[in-house]
Amino acid sequence: MIQVSQVRAGMCILFENDVCRVMNVHHVTPGNWRGFVQVRMRSLKSGNSFEHRFGSTEKVDRAILETHQMEYLYSEPSAHYFMNQETYEQISMDNETLGDTMQYLLPNTVIQVDFYDDKPVGIELPNTVSLEVVETEPSMKGATASASYKPAKMETGLVVMVPPFIEVGTKILIDTRENKYLSRG
Known about the structure:
- This protein is mostly beta strands.
- The chain folds into 3 domains: about 1-60, SH3 type barrels (Roll); about 65-125, CATH 2.40.50.140; about 130-185, CATH 2.40.50.140.
- It contains 1 helix and 16 strands.
- It has one helix at about 95-100, and strands spanning about 1-5, 10-15, 20-30, 35-45, 50-55, 60, 65-75, 80-85, 90-95, 110-115, 120-125, 130-135, 150-155, 160, 170-175, 180-185.
- It has a 6-stranded antiparallel β-sheet, with no helix packed on it. The protein has a 5-stranded antiparallel β-sheet with strand order 9-8-7-10-11. A 5-stranded antiparallel β-sheet has the order 14-13-12-15-16, with no helix packed on it.
- Strand 2 (about 10-15) and strand 3 (about 20-30) form a beta hairpin.
- It is flat, with a radius of gyration of 18 Å.
- The protein starts with a strand and ends with a strand.
- The model has no long low-confidence stretch (mean pLDDT about 85).
């Protein structure tokens, strides 16, 4: 059992005797009222997507999945290919299964792939990734980290808010759980 506030997009949880992939998590704290967590998830059995509102103190069961170390190889418009590091077997997953997680991956990245009933159901991202900035506004002379942040596009297409001193070509460390700039990397 884990606190519902620890649920992240991409996790699999048991909900009403069904294994569900969490697609989106939104924490809401409306003023004087009790906070809640709005979770959008998809049933792995039926494929149906739905939303559920949990109280912020509720607990959920995390689904027990088999994981394999796999290397991300390449992508096509409708599928992404991964190779098992031990057996060299290749699998593919579609965009709907992976969601936005692909924006953190470069080819040859080794990650954990989750399997349920011998079917790949998603990936577990590392907590941090290092990506190169390919597009951002020019840096300002004398800018400090306390100034306002600016958007920067990474080599994978991901957009992250970065300090004004970050320039094109800089490698930065990104927190994949919160999509936040951490440091130069």
